[in-house]
Design goal:
With 436 residues, the chain is α/β, with parallel strands linked by helices. Helix content is 50%, strand content 8%. It has a six-stranded parallel sheet with strand order 3-2-1-4-5-6, with helices on both faces. It has a two-stranded parallel sheet with strand order 7-8. The protein is extended, with a radius of gyration of 30 Å.
């Protein structure tokens, strides 16, 4: 995956609310702790967002509209219910199950998602550390593969965000922001989980997992490999939060959804059930508030679509590879018969059909070539003359700035008796910076 880096000269022109305006979003894991906060944040901070479709498991005796009502009545959506209740109408239930092939989504719903969705946030996962390895692989690895396949069919897709975990590569003491080699071939592991019984897989679990601490981490590492495998065909981001804990600020400070992980330990301490914890006081645990996680997911989705014009850049890259033979090898061709074509023209056809290659004005040709690229492909509206005038103005501003800075430095050095050698060094640096 491409590493996301920010700098002043590559900052996108559109804001996050502007990017999400009119965009339909598909969120898996929306009923989970982080998923709910992501959905609420999207609705609250991106008021012009389109529809949000949420993958939700079927519940016997409960209709989708009942599940949706239950979802929107959650305490996390209180500020929306009070201030902008109509925005909750943008939420839609898509019945399905990540444990099933095709995610268990009906053909009608699948077609709907293919036609409308432009942003996918895949946050669904089984987070139990003690799951049998077969279940973890089916849910977290195969489920991600099925999600990737669906995303690749989406006609308007702009970005696919996969929510992984910072601990997916714990065999390394220092974990970089890159995709590591997977612990096993994800295709083989999915096939094993589908075809071997749970007991057979459990017998060899320790050998399969290797340096991974549990089946959850193992399956998430495999899932990262799935996403990375499709990076050339999918505008993807792998987002790795560490241990997600209570919210910092919004929508409610201190909100926590379950007793998993550190929350359970702290609850046990607070209630007096556990008076002592088994910890190493020298080890710092990596926590991240749930609302910061949600913001990071949303920012990364926006940022990925603006990363150095990656879509255009990818087209140029493949075009370069395609043309490599022609740009690295010269050939000479016989053109005798080709030239005879022009000579055979009837005099009345010469004006309309002659080649005029010998009369070709190369300067004029390439000037028009560039103008055509700017007009028809890059969709620029300014003329070359306008750009030339602007460039000339910027050039004079540049010269003026160089002279001003140089004069100020000379005045400063003269006023404070700066040694000549130091002055020479300063002016040398200035020349390099301003390319005088």
């Amino acid at each position: 995956m491409s590493r996301l880096t920010l700098s002043d000269d590559t900052l996108p022109a559109t804001t996050i609310p502007e990017f999400y305006a009119g965009q339909d979003v598909f969120v898996t894991g929306a009923t989970g702790f982080v998923g709910k906060i992501v959905v609420e944040k999207l609705l609250w901070s991106c008021p012009r967002i389109g529809n949000i479709y949420m993958l939700v498991r079927r519940r016997r005796g409960m209709k989708p509209q009942d599940r949706l009502r239950e979802f929107t009545e959650h305490v996390l959506f209180e500020r929306l219910r009070k201030n902008r209740p109509d925005d909750l109408e943008k939420l839609n239930i898509i019945e399905g199950d990540q444990m099933e092939l095709g995610l268990g989504i009906s053909s009608d719903d699948r077609q709907l998602l293919k036609k409308r969705v432009s942003v996918v946030i895949h946050a669904a996962a089984s987070v139990r550390f003690d799951d049998p390895v077969s279940k973890a692989i089916i849910c977290n690895t195969r489920g991600t593969r099925e999600m990737v396949h669906l995303a690749m069919e989406m006609e308007k897709l702009k970005v696919f965000v996969y929510v992984s975990t910072a601990y997916s590569n714990t065999e390394h003491a220092y974990i970089e922001e890159k995709v590591y080699d997977p612990p096993a071939d994800w295709r083989t592991m999915i096939s094993a989980a589908e075809n071997l019984d749970s007991f057979q897989l459990d017998v060899v679990t320790k050998k399969l997992i290797g340096m991974k601490p549990n089946s959850y981490i193992f399956s998430k590492a495999l899932a990262e490999a799935v996403v990375n495998n499709y990076k050339d065909r999918l505008p993807a981001v792998i987002f790795r939060p560490s241990v997600v804990v209570a919210t910092n600020e919004e929508p409610i400070p201190g909100y926590i959804a379950n007793f998993n992980g550190s929350a359970g330990l702290k609850a046990a301490n607070l209630t007096g059930i556990a008076l002592v914890n088994l910890v190493d006081p020298k080890v710092a645990v990596n926590y991240i508030p749930a609302d910061i996680t949600a913001r990071g997911i949303i920012i990364s989705s926006w940022r990925r679509t603006h990363l150095l014009l990656v879509k255009i850049q990818r087209k140029f890259f493949y075009a370069t590879l395609t043309l490599k033979f022609f740009t690295h090898n010269e050939r000479n061709f016989s053109v005798t018969s080709f030239n005879e074509l022009e000579k055979s023209l009837h005099p009345s056809d010469v004006e309309d059909f002659e080649f005029k290659l010998t009369k070709l004005d190369l300067y004029r040709y390439f000037r028009n070539f560039i103008k055509g690229l700017r007009t028809f492909l890059l969709k620029e509206t300014t003329t070359l003359e306008q750009n030339a005038r602007l460039l000339k103005i910027l050039y004079y501003i540049h010269i003026l700035l160089c002279l001003t800075v140089s004069w100020l430095l000379y005045w400063f050095c003269s006023s404070y008796s700066i040694p000549q050698r130091l002055m020479s060094l300063v002016f040398f640096v200035i020349r390099k910076i301003f390319i005088i």
